[in-house]
Amino acid sequence: MRTPSALTGLADEFAAHRAHLIGVAYRLTGTREDAEDAVQESWLRLASLDDAGRAAIRDLRGWLTTVVGRIGLDRLRSAAVRRERYVGQWLPEPIVTPWGAPASEDPLEAAVRDDGLRLAAMVVLDRLTAEQRVALVLHDAFSVPFGEIAEILGCSADAARQHGSRARKALARADPPGRVDPARQQELLDRFVAALLAGDIRAMTELLHPDVVLIGDSNGKARTARQIIAGPDKLARFLLGLMKKYEPGLFGHGAPVLVNGDLGLWLPPRPGPGGFFDLDERVQGMSVRDGRIAAIYDIVNPDKLTRITRPRRP
Questions:
Q1: Which own/partner pairs from 52-59 qualify as long-range (CB within 8 Å, at least 24 positions apart)?
Q2: What is the pLDDT of residues 35-52, one digit of tens each?
């Protein structure tokens, strides 16, 4: 029987690892809700142990990481079934913080300052199988031995190592762009928005990487591109066409935000007067490669925006 004081001490020990566990869980699941649920479940499993069970844990951080890994694997497998019914493209749930705001103490908002949690990297993780993702994240990011990963996956250590190897090769092939200096991101975004507002297709394409893509995520609940739009010319013309369908001055109602630690844009919902389209609330993130915009992520599924930190409206 655990005494209240002992449980309080255990809670303090757990709290010291919470930010780490949130980072593990978000890398594995790609959603805030699943990440927070996984961490809460790991606490419940820890708190349910008797004194002997607690004493048997030699490395609490490692034990909790393994527990979160098991829970994350279960969430990934169930998510694969849900995604079969998903309308259009799937993107990770964005972690949004106001641009220029003081650093938050929220564990997940702190975790996404890590380069490995930028949106471009999370998109690549989403393309892996559940087993590959667990093996890669736990071993490469958190140094969990393949023997322990094998127990989580229910396979041999060699098979777990193979899952990790395949995931590593997939990540290398995708080569997600790294994080760019925020000032450079702001300059690039400002120039692109100015070119878009001016209708200058040449200036727009010069700011887009040759392999640029736009990926929209709505699950059919809001307006965005259902198919991936690739290539500078095609993307520029698509965006210019959209501008004609929405109220002029659209970007004046938005605000810069950090999306998984990189610069992006938040646009509030607005009715469309005079026959213009209504604007659905959205978060747009981007990645930069070789000084140009390499990807635009347009997240408008309201289910993925319920828990973002919204900036003050201008």
A1: 54/10
A2: 999 999 999 999 999 888
Q: What is the pLDDT of residues 156-183, one digit of tens each?
A: 999 999 999 999 999 999 999 988 998 9
Report the DSSP pairing between strands 255-259 and 229-230.
unpaired
| Block residue for tokens 């200036």 | 203
Tell me the backbone φ, ψ of residue 181, rounded to 5 degrees: -50, 130
CB-based contact 303:91 (threshold 8 Å): no
Q: Are 281 and 268 in contact (CB under 8 A)?
A: yes
Please name which of 87, 81, 93, 84 lies closest in space to residue 220, comparing C-alpha atoms.
Answer: 87
The pTM of the whole model exceeds 0.85:
yes
Overall fold of domain 182-304: Nuclear Transport Factor 2; Chain: A, (3.10.450)
Find the helix packing angle between 60-83 and 146-153, rounded to 10°: 40
Q: How far apart are CA 260 and CA 214, in angstroms?
A: 17
CA-based radius of gyration for the chain: 21
Q: CA-to-CA distance for 184 and 105, rounded, in angstroms? A: 26
Cβ neighbours of residue 260 closer than 8 Å, sequence gap 6 or more: 92, 94, 95, 112, 117, 118, 119, 122, 285
